[in-house]
Amino acid sequence: MVDYSLDESVGYLLKRAGGRLATTIDRALAEFDMTHAQLGIFLLLLHGHANTAADLARGMGVDTGAMTRALDRLEGKSFIRRLRSDRDRRVIEVSLTDKGISQADVMMHVAVDAMNLHLRGFSPDEIEQFKGFLRRMIMNA
């Protein structure tokens, strides 16, 4: 590719935008001792998209070792609990604790406010179009 420019690469721009968004959300969630990555786990549990360590790893796109370490940290902060499944002892079921549930709504608002900082100047139509482009990229993968 003769006219390739890193600064104009879609992949590079997506990575930079994602990195900046993650930093903003991390700063906003610091008061809760939470990171954007941990919030992702939180949201999967909160919305019922996962309830096992393996499902969480798939949902977050990480290996099971990384998920175990993340769950160790969340459990240490008393945000989640892990229990062996009664049906299959190999399966670890994960759920939010009362503390996790009680802080989930506030943390969601903080994260949404941080996201909205990055969307300043975009019209509602542009945001919908942008989401459509992202969905199409995901489907093309």
TrEMBL record:
Entry-linked SUPFAM superfamilies? Winged helix' DNA-binding domain
Matching entries from InterPro entries are given as: HTH_MarR-typ (IPR000835), Tscrpt_reg_MarR-type_CS (IPR023187), WH-like_DNA-bd_sf (IPR036388), WH_DNA-bd_sf (IPR036390)
For this UniProt record, the keywords arranged alphabetically read as follows:
DNA-binding, Transcription, Transcription regulation
- Any one Pfam family match given in the protein's UniProt record, by short name: MarR
Which GO molecular-function terms appear in the entry?
DNA binding; DNA-binding transcription factor activity
HTH marR-type domain: residues covered = 7-139
Q: What is this protein called?
A: MarR family transcriptional regulator
Organism, as annotated: Noviherbaspirillum pedocola
